[in-house]
Amino acid sequence: MAERDDPGIIGRRVQQLRTERGLTQKQLAEPAYTPAYVSTLEAGRVRPSEEALRHIAERLGVAYEELATGRPAHLATDLRLRLTDAQRTLATGEAEIAAEQYTALLAEAQDLGLDAECAAALLGLGECAMDTGDLTTARARFEESEKRLADEPLPVRVPALRGRAVSHYLAGELRYACYLLESAIDELNKGGLHDPDALLLLYAAVIAPYMDMGAHARAAQAAEFALALAPQVGDPALLARMHRSVARTMIAEGRMAEADASLGKAAELYRQLQIRTELANCHWMRGYLYAQNGDLERAESELREAQAMHSAQRAALYTSQVAVELADVLHRRGKSQEAATLLHGVLGDLSSERGAVHSAGAHRLLGIIAEDGRDTETAEEHYVRALSLLERAGAAGDLADLCRLLGDLLRRTGRIDAALDAYRTGLGHRTAPGTTTLGPAPAHPPL
To answer: What sections of the sequence does the record tag as coiled-coil (predicted)?
Structure first.
């Protein structure tokens, strides 16, 4: 909410409204205040308390906000309704149209001095930018939203903070994403701000970076806390997000049927809410689950559905990330040429600052395909590029998998010492089902 006008402006407003209504200062003041207080207030010589303004607003028959700011209360209400409309537009996958709506609403909220509504519009713009893969803009919008809410309690700031953390995660900055989310969780819990919605949002968000970093115990604990909080949360979209996130920890624990059921719950909620981007992500996660479990035909079907949905919504980054996982499935089904074509088509859209883990996954797969074609030099180039991306991101499961592949290649080409170095690097990390970006991790090297 914007700050009130200064005492002089409020005083003149009170005097004008009182005169229009034919009230004396005594009639306006009674029974809680004196005529002298009203006279001082109208002269602008005192800053009225909220309690005093609410009393006077009631006597004048106007809303408190209109008396304090000069704006009719319905303007803020109308703006909030239109923010909800923009949110629905984004949910259906029309990120570019939603961004136009949010931009117009932000300008209007700024003109009216409505900080909460400005923050909501900035949050929406951040989500739009993240959906279209513009992570730099997304991060800037989330940061602006947080600044607008600087004086608000932490639970109010959590959605913007979570958005900023996810933008760092998608950029391959896994540790910093975890730091942001963990710091907020600690502050909420230590400060006694037990807000179930805020905590569930944070716990659901931290699972993916934990898993990519190989922090399986922390991911499992976050999933456990999220499931315990679920009965206290009424937002179905938030519950759906939780079910989708928790499924990955179940995959890592080999609980494939439970993971599938959890994804089924999430997908059904997203269908009811008509949130197409998240529904596409459910197909994506289901494809990942089937790929981890070796059910490649179903994996391909789910991933193709996810890719088509994200592509239709112009979610460029997500489309490219799904394509990498689809290429892995195609390769494992013997369609290596199709997989390579798909990878070369999306590799330019991925980088160390944009989908770093999947960029590494693309190079890993191209390395495997090159090895299959006995082009060891090209394979090694791809493996080394993937290794650089993964070391920067700190994606432990993928790093262990890749070190094994690189070590095997080096060993076959007679470079035993270099192979041992690669194996040792890989053995410093744990690979298990659900901890790599792509299909099942290979066995540990034969040392």
So the answer is: 289-316
Cβ neighbors of 93 (< 8 A, separation 6 or more) are 131, 276, 277, 280, 309, 312, 313, 315
Dump pLDDT digits (tens) for 261-288: 999 999 999 999 889 989 999 999 999 9
Name the burial class of residue 140, with classes exposed (0-12), middle (13-18) and buried (19+) by CB atoms within 10 angstroms of its CB: middle
Contact 325, 287 (CB under 8 A): yes
Span between the terminal Cα atoms of the chain, in Å: 64
Exposed e or buried b per residue across 397-428, where buried means at least 16 C-beta atoms within 10 angstroms of its C-beta = bbbbbbbbbbbbbbbeeeeeeebeebbebbbe
Of 275, 272, 345, 343, nearest to 309 (Cα)?
275
pTM of the model: 0.79
Phi and psi at 351, nearest 5°, equal: -160, -175
CA dist., res. 239 & res. 245, Å (int): 10
Is the pLDDT at 158 greater than 80? The verdict is yes
DSSP 178: H
Instruction: Write down the pLDDT at residue 199.
Output: 93
C-alpha dihedral sign at 439, 248, 385, 304: positive
The alpha carbon of 411 is separated from its chain's Cα centroid by a whole number of angstroms, namely 41
Give the whole-angstrom CA distance, residue 258 versus residue 293. Answer: 13
pLDDT tens by residue, 76-105: 778 889 999 999 999 888 889 999 999 999
pLDDT tens string 365-399? 999 999 999 999 999 999 999 999 998 888 887 88
pLDDT digits (tens, 9 = 90+) for 55-84: 999 998 888 877 887 776 677 778 889 999
Judge contact between 181 and 190, C-beta under 8 A: no
Task: Calculate the CA dihedral of residues 53, 55, 56, 62 and round it to 10 degrees.
Answer: 90
Q: How far is residue 366's CA from residue 355's CA, in Å, rounded to a whole number?
A: 17
